[in-house]
Amino acid sequence: MKNIVLIGMMGTYKTTAGKIVAKELKKKFLDTDKILASRFNMSINRYFEKYGEQSFREQEHMLCLELGDETDTVISTGGGVVKNYDNILAFKKNGIIICLSASPYQIYSRIKNSKTRPLLKSPNPLKKIEEILAERDPLYKKAADVIIHNDYMSGRQTAYAILDYIKTIKTD
Ligand code: S3P
Questions:
Q1: CA of residue 41 to ligand 1 center, whole Å
Q2: Which of 2, 3, 95, 155 is spaced 20 to 30 A from 67 at the CA atom?
Q3: Ligand 1 atom 9, closest CA
Q4: Measuring from atom 11 of ligand 1, which residue has the nearest CA?
Q5: Ligand 1 atom closest to Cα of 36?
């Protein structure tokens, strides 16, 4: 069966929903940020501070090439994975790309207390989210096989929306 690859901005429930989808479909679950943090032996936040975003993107890219060869897996990705279209091409080899999306304010209210998002270390995080979203919106649209807007959904409801979509397509 094809991989289910979740892309989208931070705070769109990629990890929460991805875990539920994997459990329901009895598939393996992988989270790119979690794998990277464990390989770095430090948090993503710390890695950004120490080595910068460029280095993080290179490591993220290598991992995407690696995970493109997986099968039967639900993969949750970091919000910036779309910045390199080669990451998406690697996932498209054997995957369905589902983009989770939410409005800037919704994203802000979901993650405003998070200390783990290096890109939000800004005096005006809502503005920063708007800026990142404006830049990435076309990239998410280009990459996605489908977009699920989840402003009015919980993580669990998002998972069920993903499962409903999967029922309508061919996944083998
Ligand atoms: C990032 C999102 C984060 C993480 C890193 C960069 C981004 O992942 O990969 O902090 O560029 O949007 P989440 O989307 O899981 O928060």
A1: 17
A2: 155
A3: 78
A4: 80
A5: 9
Q: What's the whole-number mean pLDDT along residues 66-84?
A: 97
- How far does residue 11's CA lie from ligand 1's centre (Å)? 9
For residue range 156-170, what is the model confidence (pLDDT) as tens digits?
999 999 999 999 987
What residues line ligand 1, using a CB cutoff of 6 Å? 10, 14, 33, 44, 78-80, 117-119
